[in-house]
Amino acid sequence: MKKTLVVLLLALGLVSSAAAAGAAAVTDVAIDKLLDGVRVTIACEGEANVSSFVSSEPPAIVLDFMDATSGLDRDRIESDFYPVSAVTIQPSEAVTGLRIAIRLRDLVDHRVTREEGLVVVDLGTVPLPMMPPPPPEDAFAGKRLTLYVKDAGITDVVRMLATQFNLNLLVTQDVKSLVTVRLSDVPLRAGLDALLKAALCNMVEEPNGILVIKPVKKEMYGEVLTRVFVLDYVEATDAVTAIEPVLSEVGKAQENYRRVGGGSGSERTQVLVVSDVQEALDRVAAVLADFDRPVPQVAIEAKFVETTRSAEDRYGIEWTISASANSGPFEYLKDFAIPITFDEMVLGKINLDQMRASLELLASRGNSRVLANPRTMTLDNQTARVTMGLQYPLRVVNKDAETGEITYTWEKEDIPIQLEVTPHVTSDGMITMSVSTTVEAITGWVGSADEQQPIIAERTAETQVTVADGEVVVIGGLVKEEETRTVGKIPLLGDIPILGHLFKKTVLRRETNDLMVFIIPHVVT
Q1: For residues 295 and 525, what is the distance between their CA atoms, to the nearest angstrom?
Q2: Residues forming beta bridges with residue 483, ordered by sequence position
Q3: In a 3-state reduction of DSSP, which class is residue 487?
Q4: Which residues pair with 299 in a beta bridge?
Q5: 415 in the Ramachandran plot: left (φ > 0), alpha (ψ -120 to 50) or beta?
Q6: Which of 40, 56, 179, 513 is the most exposed place for a label (fewest CB within 10 A)?
Q7: What are phi and psi of 375, to 5 degrees?
């Protein structure tokens, strides 16, 4: 019997020694005055798993040591160094181990670090301002976490944090993992999320305030939430493509319409309905905040100037004269960044002063006029169109196939001058424009005197140019040749067949006009 008792006691002693060998032991606590603060140094045998939090009432910095024992001969150490009043050592309420509380006279900035065999707490001496209490429904507001653990059970760590920060936590039984974490003074929510990710878990917040910790792959009713995003500037169909990379495996997004009245509403999809876990919804909200921004608007002013061409005006405007009239000697590459010439047409860009000098030069000749000065506004990457021109009445002969009766009707033929501009505002404030212009003109007539049809010439130009806000794009050389035929005759005698040609006169007049288009874009904020 005695031998059995001795063997049992030896076994218990060996188990206790082994348990003690695997746990950290606090051997000393020192409080030292530094030049710019106070340092509390806690010496340990073995590597301590430690977590800290701040208590506001009473003010203290609390450190919980998991599975640690105390090798000190006292449980309270007084201090004369502000702001520390005392350091207390007692069993932890959160975990199996020790709780060391650094009692403070006032809350101050602090930093907790762990070195080999030491846990060091550095404290400042300037009291922190009083912070307003966080809203009662937010259990994480204003709380920060410092956590140093190695190969610790995730369930034990979460239970310790729940006790420290007064969280209502529920951990499912299949949460089993060992974690090694080093977090220094991070927001509590961010720290807890990182801790759970390391353990392949996530947190579901119930409406009643309970936090459920579960494995990521385990689905739970109520985990997937639905949120409606009302978009102001972008189409929901485009937004779906933008948020797809941040959705989780269970997430989905659907665009929708917001209609008014009978449901005929706008065709614009401005409502986005997203269903996903809370973390993914937060990512979606961040992406949409950057994506759904006001689209820049560009005000476009155009001047259509028509001038009668002289023999020396090849492009409708003497570029060297107009530029030199304002800015001195003409520099071809400097004054016109893109003078592109093809088939008597010139594309270029000038500044406002050069444009005014050009218009003054043309006005001084007395052979030019401003046909139109339209102004319009368009969104970034949207096309603005300006159309002007004439409508010519044309007689159309209609013959009935059965009766042979001939009737005449009149139709209108449009002879337009059309300008299309698609602007894009770059990140540096420049404006890239796709410019397309078309000029149509009647250059002659064909057919008999009773059934004349017009010959219509069309000139088009397309280009892309990048200009600064307020810089002028000019298009010249859009030549329009008009032919006017005037017949004068003596009444009665001029209508005699064959001999009537002796009593009438036909005057053919050809006039060549050059149309110049000045385009001035402005970014509207």
Answers
A1: 9
A2: 510
A3: strand
A4: 377, 522
A5: beta
A6: 56
A7: -130, 140
Residue pair 83/105 in contact (Cβ under 8 Å)? The answer is yes
Helix axes 319-327, 352-365, angle to 10 degrees: 120
For residues 410 and 397, give the distance between their C-alpha atoms in angstroms, rounded to a whole number. 9
Do 97 and 110 meet the contact criterion of CB atoms below 8 Å apart?
Answer: no
Separation CA 252–CA 355 (nearest Å): 55
42 in Cβ contact with 63 (< 8 Å): yes
What does the buried/exposed string (b/e) look like for 328-337 if buried means 16 or more CB atoms within 10 Å of the residue's CB?
A: eebeeeebbe
DSSP string, 434-464: EEEEEEEEEEEEES-SSS-EEEEEEEEEEEE
User: Six-digit token pair at 324?
Assistant: 């030199």
User: In sequence order, which residues have a C-beta less than 8 Å from that of residue 293 and are 6 or more positions away?
Assistant: 233
Spatial contact of 230 and 257, defined as CB atoms under 8 Å apart:
no
Report phi then psi at 265, rounded to 5.
10, -175
Angle subtended at Cα 179 by Cα 175 and Cα 184, rounded to the nearest 5 degrees: 125
DSSP state of 24: -
3-class DSSP state of 159: helix
Q: 240 — phi, psi (to 5°)?
A: -60, -45
pTM greater than 0.70 (yes/no): no
Cα 483 to Cα 443: distance, rounded to the nearest angstrom = 6
Q: From first to last of its 525 residues, what are the pLDDT tens digits of the chain?
A: 444 443 333 333 433 433 344 578 999 999 999 999 999 999 999 888 999 999 888 899 999 999 899 999 999 999 999 999 999 999 988 888 999 999 999 999 999 998 888 999 999 999 998 766 655 567 888 889 999 998 899 999 998 998 898 888 888 888 888 999 899 999 998 999 889 888 888 888 877 778 888 888 777 766 788 899 988 888 888 888 889 988 888 888 988 876 655 544 455 668 889 998 888 898 999 999 988 888 888 998 888 877 775 544 444 444 443 433 333 333 433 444 334 333 444 556 666 666 666 666 666 655 677 777 888 888 888 898 888 777 878 777 777 778 878 787 888 878 888 888 999 988 888 888 888 888 777 777 777 666 677 777 777 777 788 888 888 888 776 666 666 666 666 776 666 777 766 777 776 666 667 777 888 898 887
Question: If DSSP codes are grouped into helix, strand and coil, which group holds residue 458?
Answer: strand
364: three-class secondary structure by DSSP = helix
